[in-house]
Amino acid sequence: MTVSGGAVARPRNLWVPLGTPLKELVSSAGGFREEPGLILVGGPMTGVTQKSLEAPVLPNTNGLLCLAPWEQPREQAPTVCIRCGQCVSVCPMHLSPIFVVRALKENAAERLRSLHPQDCMDCGCCTYICPAHIPLADLVRQAAGQVRELEKGGASMADLRTSVPPQLAQATSTTSIMLDVIVALLPALGMAVYLFGPRVLALTLISVGACVLSEYLYRRLTHQSNTLRDCSACVTGLLLAMCLPAASPTGSPCWGCLCHRGGETVLRRAGQKLHEPGSGWADAAVHLPLLDDHLGGRAGLSPRLG
After folding, report:
1. Distance CA 101, CA 114 (A)
2. CA 189, CA 202: separation in Å to the nearest integer?
3. Which among 233, 244, 231 is positioned nearest to 192, based on CA atoms?
4. pLDDT interval class at 184 (50, 70, 90)
5. 221: how many CB neighbours lie within 10 A of its CB?
6. pLDDT band at residue 266 using 50, 70 and 90 as cut-offs
7. Residue 128 phi, psi dihedral angles, 5° rounding
8. Distances in Å between the alpha carbon of 72 and those of 132, 167, 301?
9. How far apart are CA 122 and CA 156, in angstroms?
10. What distances in angstroms separate CA 211 from CA 8, 10, 109, 214, 286, one per listed residue?
11. 212 Cβ neighbours under 8 A, 6+ residues apart
12. Three-class HEC string of the chain
C-alpha cells in the first residue's frame, strides 16, 4: 500500500500484512515531518478521514494519505449555480448532479427517482469541479438515500458514511470564471470606445455600477447572502451595456436592471430558475425595446428607424 502526503517524511510503497496498525506504516515511512492536518485512508477523492492511527490495515485499505495543513482545501461557502454543466460532463455514471440536487430541494420524489441518484459511485468529481463550491456529492448521496428509502424502506449505506468526498478542492471558482469573461469582453469594449467615442465607456461604467448596486440592494432587502464577490453583477452590467446603442440615454442601464430584477422576482415566485447569474442582459435586451415601444419611443431606449 502507498503511504504519502506532504506531512510524511519519506513517502513510499509498502508490503504489509493485514492487521498492521497504521502508525507502523508511518514509522516505516520516516514519521511525520510536520503535524498532519488531515489523515485519509484511501485517495484524495474518495478517501475516508481517519482520526486515529491505531486502526488496522484492512483488505480494502490501499493507501494512507497524510496531508499537511497547507494541502487541505479551504472551506468556501457555496454560491449560486451558474449552469456551466461541468458536473454533468465529468460524471462517470452519466448522471446530472445539479438536477438531482434541484429535485431533492424541491422534494420532487418521482422526478428524483427518474434521475437515478442511487447509481452514484461516490467519486466526488462533481463537487471537485463545481466552480460555485456546491457540495453536489453530499447532496446526491442524500438523494440516493431518499430513493432507497422509498424503494426498500429503512436507512441506506450512505447514512453510515463518516466523510464526504472529495477531500481536495480545485482553485476554479465562479469569481475566476466571471473574471475570465470580463477579460474576454475587454477587447470588444475597447473597440467600441474607439469607434463610438468615450460615451460608450461612460455608459458601460453606469451600467456596471447600476447592476452592482441593484444586486446589493436586492440581496439585502430579500435577506440573502451577498454575491457581489463573484463578479456576476459586473458581467451583467458589461453585457447590458454592449446590448445598448451608443446613443442611448444614461438612464437606459437603470431600466435594464429594473427589468432584470422584476423578471427574476416573478420567475422565482412562479417556481422557475434563471439560467445563470449573468443572464440579466438577456432580460434587459428583451424588455428595453418593449418598454420603449410602449412609451411610443419617447424613452429613447432602443434605436428607431425612419
Report:
1. 13
2. 11
3. 244
4. very high
5. 8
6. low
7. -65, -40
8. 18, 8, 51
9. 14
10. 49, 53, 37, 5, 17
11. 228, 233, 234, 237
12. CEEECCCECCCEECCCCCCCEHHHHHHHCCCECCCCCEEEECCCCCCEECCCCCCECCCCCCEEEEECHHHCCCCCCCCCCCCCCHHHHHCCCCCCHHHHHHHHHCCCHHHHHHCCHHHCCCCCHHHHHCCCCCCHHHHHHHHHHHHHHHHCCCCCHHHHCCCCCCCCCCCCCHHHHHHHHHHHHHHHHHHHHHHHCHHHHHHHHHHHHHHHHHHHHHHHHCCCCCCHHHCHHHHHHHHHHHHCCCCCCCCHHHHHHHHHHHHHHHHHHCCCCCCCHHHHHHHHHHHHHHHHHHCCCCCCCCCCCC
Do residues 278 and 181 touch, judged by C-beta distance below 8 A?
yes
Average pLDDT over residues 236-249: 84
pTM, two decimals, is 0.58
Cis, bond preceding 166 (omega within 30 deg of 0): yes
**Bridge partner residues of 4 (DSSP):** 65
Residue 69 above 50 pLDDT? Answer: yes
| Structure confidence at residue 159 as a pLDDT band (50, 70, 90) | very low
* Residue 110 CB contacts under 8 Å (≥ 6 apart), including other chains: none
Distances (CA, A) of 152 to 160, 250, 297: 17, 62, 63
Q: Which residues contact 38 (CB under 8 A, 6 or more apart)?
A: 49, 66, 67, 71, 72, 167
For residue 249 the three cell numbers come to 440615454
Q: Which residue in 160, 2, 133, 6 sits closest to 70, CA to CA?
A: 6
Whole-angstrom distance, CA of residue 119 vs CA of residue 138: 14
Q: What was the pLDDT predicted at 11?
A: 92
